[in-house]
Specification:
The model has no long low-confidence stretch (mean pLDDT 94). The chain has strands spanning 5-13, 17-26, 57-65. Helix content is 0%, strand content 42%. The protein is an all-beta fold and 66 residues long. The chain contains no helices and 3 strands. The protein has one domain (5-65).
Length: 66
Amino acid sequence: RRVDLTIAKAFTLPGHTQLQIRFESFNVFDWRQYNNPNTTVTSPTFGLITSVASTRTGQIGVRLTF
């Protein structure tokens, strides 16, 4: 389970041009995302989950459409 959030604001510019500013946040509530278990039969950690996916991240972007 994971919740992502995007907030965007668009501005109309002259000549049918549009500028959009975006903020995106991934895994907003920072819930753990467990990776797949180890499938190497000869490994001492066979069948165990030994890592989790990346934590909460965010990015800012600008899009110019013309």
